[in-house]
Write a structure and sequence with these properties.
It is a single chain. The protein starts with 7 loop residues before the first helix and ends with a helix. The chain has 13 helices and 13 strands. It has 2 domains: 179 residues, Rossmann fold, CATH 3.40.50.2300; 170 residues, Rossmann fold (3-Layer(aba) Sandwich). The strands form 3 sheets. An 8-stranded mixed sheet has the order 1-3-2-4-5-6-12-11, with helices on both faces. Strands 8-7-9 form a 3-stranded parallel sheet, sandwiched between helices. The longest helix has 19 residues. The protein is α/β, with parallel strands linked by helices and 375 residues long. β7, α6 and β8 form a beta-alpha-beta unit. Helix content is 44%, strand content 17%. The chain is globular. Bound molecules: beta-D-glucopyranose (BGC). GO terms for molecular function: carbohydrate binding.
């Protein structure tokens, strides 16, 4: 399973792996944190390999801890494969430490959501040097050379956001609206793809003078608090902002909070992404125009299927490839289809089981849920 010359460290890692393989008890890593979880300790693992997953943080979006972790865990448990899922909590040094520990503790497959391509690549390089198979989960590590990439069509996510904003502005009969763009982290390749997507829709409208290009800024690390400060400045400098392209629900919520303070919520359409409970509630309240639902269960299922195959020593095939724009390599990929969600389609997200009526339709939202046909 491992190639290359064995150093003392790798020999130790192989021994750990051997123990995991024989005992099949899915040993935990040396640095458990609050957000860490390891599996297959009770049920004997049917698979020799072990999968390590590093999630990026728990602040840039609710999805990582509420959806991705849950669905990945379910898939690994069902397959009887040993796993260790940890969250780097936005700390790039910690990200690398976790990866080192996972490899030392016998991971044969490493799945990462990078915090930036530079540190992501360092982790992937180390893993590969030790014969550990690699998967980029959700975010492509540029020049990273991961064996697989599993995500959504992220340019399409952006296109849906741009089209969604246009629909909401048209519904409001907006005249030459000034648009603010609140982009995702400049170090996240997805944020670049989202922007390519929505600018593909908005730029022609700026060019034809139908819309006016207003402030346009990236939010470092998708930091929601910083997004609030940035949007507050945008609105101070340009009080006539009439539409906000926010790259995810967290950034959208930050903009909505500022709009609320200025009694502009509901008047200025705001976009989002991730179909978080907060984002969906903002849509029900009329403060957010739309979100993009990405069926994360499908993403987690596709990625875990690859990881489980790799853990069994197979060479799974992927249905597509994506171009790594930095290295020029074609990375075997699974790219899923995102779906736009407006007031009337919030019910589709509930019907898909991604959020429950109980979490969504609390207090003031109960009546809105009925209005939106949520059963
Ligand atoms: C993901 C989004 C998420 C954002 C912030 C992106 O890479 O695709 O779903 O909202 O990161 O975590």
């Amino acid at each position: 399973m491992r190639k290359g010359i064995l150093s003392l460290t790798t020999a130790a890692a192989v021994m750990t792996l051997g123990l995991t393989a024989c005992g099949g008890d899915g040993a935990t890593t040396a640095a458990p944190s609050d957000a860490a979880s390891s599996g297959s300790a009770s049920a004997p693992a049917a698979v020799a390999g072990k999968v390590g997953v590093i999630l990026p943080d728990s602040k840039s979006s609710a999805r990582w801890e509420t959806a991705d972790r849950k669905y990945l865990e379910e898939a690994f448990k069902a397959a009887g494969v040993a796993y260790d899922i940890q969250n780097a909590q936005g700390d790039k040094t910690q990200f690398q430490t976790i990866a080192d520990q996972m490899i030392t503790n016998g991971a044969t497959v490493l799945m990462i959501v990078n915090l930036d391509s530079g540190t992501g690549k360092a982790v992937l390089d180390k893993a590969k040097a030790q014969g550990v198979a690699t998967i980029d989960y959700d975010r492509l590590t540029l020049n990273g050379g991961a064996s697989y990439y599993v995500s959504f069509d992220n340019t399409k996510v952006g296109t849906l956001q741009g089209e969604g904003l246009v629909k909401c502005l048209t519904d409001k009969k907006a005249d030459k609206p000034i648009i603010a763009e609140l982009n995702g982290s400049p170090t996240d390749n997805n944020a670049t793809l989202f922007k390519n997507g929505y600018d593909g829709v908005l730029k022609p409208k700026y060019d034809s003078k139908e819309y006016v290009a207003g402030p346009d800024q990236s939010v470092p690390d998708w930091d929601n608090a910083q997004a609030g400060t940035i949007f507050e400045q945008m609105l101070t400098e340009q009080p006539k902002i009439a539409g906000v392209l926010a790259a995810n629900d967290g950034l959208g919520n930050a903009a909505i909070a500022v709009l609320k303070k200025n009694s502009l919520n509901g008047k200025v359409p705001v976009t989002g992404q991730d179909a978080t409970v907060q984002g969906l509630q903002n849509i029900l309240a009329g403060d957010q125009c739309m979100t993009v639902y990405k069926a994360i269960k499908k993403e987690a299922d596709a990625a875990s299927a690859l990881a489980i195959g790799l853990a069994k020593g197979e060479k799974p095939t992927a249905p597509a490839t994506v171009k790594d724009t930095e290295s020029g390599a074609d990375v075997p990929a699974v790219l899923l289809d995102p779906q736009p969600i407006f007031f009337d389609s919030v019910k589709d997200v509930v019907a898909d089981g991604f959020v429950t009526k109980d979490e969504l339709c609390t207090g003031e939202f109960a009546a809105k849920c009925t209005e939106a046909g949520i059963q």
